[in-house]
Amino acid sequence: MSLPRYSHGAHLDYCRPEPSMLRTLRLFSLLSCFVFLSITLGSAADSSAPSSNAQFHYQKPPKVIADVLESPAPPTTIVSPTRDRVLVIESLRQPPISDLAAPMLRIAGLRINPVTNGRHHPPHHVGYSVITIATGKQIKLATPANAWLSQPIWSPDGKHFVFTNTTANATELWIADADSGSMRRIPGIRINSTYGEPVQWMSGSRMLLVQLVPAGRGAPPVDSRLPVGPNVQESSGKATPVPTFEDLLQTPHDAELFDYYVTSQLATVDEVSGKATPIGSPAIFDDMQPSPDDKHILIARLVPPYSYLVPAEGFAKEVEVWNESGKLERKIASLPTSEHVPIEGVVTGPRDYEWIATKPATLVWAEALDEGNPKKKVPYRDHLFSLAAPFSSEPVELVKLQQRYSAGGFRNAGMEFAEKGDWAFVHDYDRNRRWVRTFQINLDGPGQEPKLVWERSVRDRYGDPGRPVLRLTANNQEVIRMNGDSIYLAGEGASPKGDLPFLDRYNVSDRTTERIFHAADKTYEQFVALLNDDASRFITRFETPDEPPNLYVREGAKPEAKVALTHFPDPAPQLRGITKQLITYKREDGVQLSFTLYLPSDYKQGERLPTIVWAYPLEYNDAATAGQVSGSQYRFTVISGISHLFLLTQGYAILDNATMPVVGDPETMNNTYLEQVVSSAKAAIDKATEMGVTDPNRVGVGGHSYGAFMTANLLAHSNLFKAGVARSGAYNRTLTPFGFQSERRTFWEAPDMYLKISPFAFADKIKTPILLIHGEADDNTGTFPIQSERMYQAIKGNGGTVRYVTLPYEAHGYLGLESVEHVQWEMLQWFDKYVKNASSASPTTGQ
């Protein structure tokens, strides 16, 4: 078993800094010296190191936390396309670390298990049940032994569902019958699930389109330890600003492995007979979409030479239409790698290609009118084209869009098709204003002017009209469900009182809206699915702070009009009694803020508790939008994984999701990042202190990823906290020089800002104790483990109090049961030592 690793001592070769260099470009040389010179971890231990080797073993948190983490996960549900059944999915809450220790290839931005020829550690479901909505009868399916099941996919007719099962050495294809509950494996089928969509239904609910491991492909390529020459990359002088991706190709042998494991044989599989029929030649499929009439397949193939700067999704592509046997009918585009795409830009040539769901075989796609460059000033940024079978004519321009064609937060592409009327919703996004608009277009009207339907700031939750309710057609296409001229919109219903989910009827002809349902006050009830076309019957998911989420069948909006469909019990009754309250307040500059105040179950009114502020900063264009409330205090409290909320069981108050808005011009807002997050943190503490629940001399702070970056900055630039926990963060912004989060400028365009907000540059100011935790296999863009390693060395080298824990096999989020329990133990030990048991003296100064 791999154990968590700790750092308590190190040998450093480094440059001694001069104070006058901190805010100048000369500091970049200093930072580079810290980052790139050899740093070797030593065996010497400092005076704070434990005296035994117990620190090198996974530790368990208190029993109340361990019991929850080791309990079954709450089930999830999927309603069938025919609206007569509900599929219940049971999952493994926290897999053992042995699952994560399976073989892993990290190539081209992918993580592949070479033994199963699938993704490394795919979702791990362990069981299924089917509930008949009319009767409430539930059938539990007999899953295979040691089941490792994928997310199931309903057939369009709702009679079957398909899924994969990952075994010790393969990925199998299985079919389940919804009526009988019987399950069967399709023999002789070995799925390649390394990349793309490995399994999908075609029309008629009988045929499946799958990616197979090619037959007879031979043994994997062997890496000769003797190189044939150097590994070479070269630039022709054209700017190629790209994010700092992880797991990229490094050598020609990596490219050989990528070819070997990711190449698939496309095939159809008859779900009745199990017969597999190959389609075309093996390739690496980035996309494969059967046409609604099943006579054509839209294909995007990745082709060499492969990039060493971007992951697989950014490789060169051939976009083609094949017939049902795999013969080329039309080449749509030959697309280069995305290496030269500007930051926040798009590729030139066809992109976001898909079939029009309501036509037999008509393609639609977008192309840039600004060379893919968002900074170029043009009257129109994108236009949409369509092309119908037999694909022998020229594409027809449907519409021009003033801003970038974009997803509506709903589908992979940017269009939702109405089930009747030959119209669709399309969306564009104004990068400068952070503004999203929805238009209605006629699919048979070339050169039309789009009709504006909705528009709002992308961060405006109060103004969100909701998302169209879809249905799955018999030919496996998602379309907007209609009843006459009306469609249905479901949304979170954000409001100053918190989220009140709703279901609306919207008339597309006269643009009137009727509210059908919304959650009652002091509850949280969310629309799930319609049971008939006129919305007189529908399914909701209902919960309160004391009642776990369950599905209900509603015969209208009145509270008494619902009947329970599921009866899932409380997964963690030991957590009941915890209270939460949505709190709003203002920071010094007048921006409204909020947090959810969580209090332990045994809290006594008037008692001042040690408190943890947990947050994640977000960017906004204006103060009004930044001040909007998010979430609901009336949801059932579920605590799992590495959640900081487990600290509630140990006597802490939690200011959860304390808003830390960074407000300003999208081009320059980070110039005042530090001032805004410090002001936000102070306002949160002041409010909780005013309420009488927080001891201001015993407050800690924590965050994950960008929240870890925030945590380190708060400790470097304020004296508000006694300790901090920073998980999987990035601390030196010169190591993400082409932008981060919503920052658009490169390091060379705004060097002072990059240095100013890098807590690494102020490591000598961090005297407040900080716990750094990082997954050794972090896969997130920009948060390489070296970020925490160098931050630890910098704080330690400047005499700070710091502990650094790395988690074997863990990625950006932590999954293994042993890892998760250990993280809970680490956070509790740290906060107990430096926050709960801190003296009543003023917090340690950070300046």
Describe the structure.
The chain is 12% helix and 32% strand. The longest helix has 20 residues, at 817-836. The protein has 847 residues and is mostly beta strands. The strands form 13 sheets. The protein has a nine-stranded mixed beta sheet, sandwiched between helices. Strands 27, 28, 29, 30 and 31 form a five-stranded antiparallel beta sheet that branches. Strands 32, 35, 36, 37 and 38 form a five-stranded antiparallel beta sheet that branches. The two termini are 42 Å apart.
Helix content: 10-25%
Number of helices: 10
Mean pLDDT: 90
Shape: globular
Strand content: 25-35%
**Helices and strands: which structural class?**
mainly beta
What strand order characterises the main sheet?
A: 1-52-51-50-49-45-47-44-43
Our measurement of the CA-to-CA distance between the termini, rounded to an integer number of angstroms, reads 42 Å
Stretches where pLDDT is under 50 for at least 5 consecutive residues are 8-52, 408-413
Q: Sheet with the most strands?
A: 9 strands, mixed
Q: Give me the Rg, rounded.
A: 28 Å
Number of strands: 52
Note the main attributes of this structure.
847 residues, mainly beta, 9-stranded mixed beta sheet, 5-stranded antiparallel beta sheet, 10 helices, 52 strands
In short:
The protein is mainly beta and 847 residues long. 12% of the residues lie in helices and 32% in strands.
List the helices and strands and how they pair.
Layout (H helix, E strand, L loop, with lengths): L4 E3 L2 E3 L13 H11 L2 E3 L21 H7 L6 E4 L5 E7 L5 H4 L4 E3 L2 E4 L4 E2 L5 E8 L5 E3 L12 E2 L5 E7 L4 E7 L5 E3 L13 E3 L5 E6 L39 H11 L2 E6 L5 E3 L5 E7 L5 E7 L14 E7 L4 E8 L15 E5 L6 E7 L13 E7 L7 E6 L2 E2 L9 E3 L5 E8 L4 E8 L8 E7 L9 E2 L1 E3 L5 E3 L1 E2 L2 E6 L10 E6 L5 E6 L5 E7 L7 E6 L6 E5 L7 E3 L14 E8 L5 E8 L9 E6 L3 E3 L2 H4 L26 E4 L4 E3 L9 H18 L3 E11 L1 H12 L5 E5 L23 H6 L13 E6 L10 H12 L4 E6 L9 H20 L11
Parallel strand pairs: 45-47, 45-49, 46-48, 49-50, 50-51, 51-52
Antiparallel strand pairs: 1-52, 2-3, 4-5, 5-9, 6-7, 7-8, 9-10, 11-12, 12-13, 13-14, 15-16, 16-17, 17-18, 19-20, 20-21, 21-22, 23-24, 24-25, 25-26, 27-29, 28-29, 29-30, 30-31, 32-36, 33-34, 35-36, 36-37, 37-38, 39-40, 40-41, 41-42, 43-44, 44-47
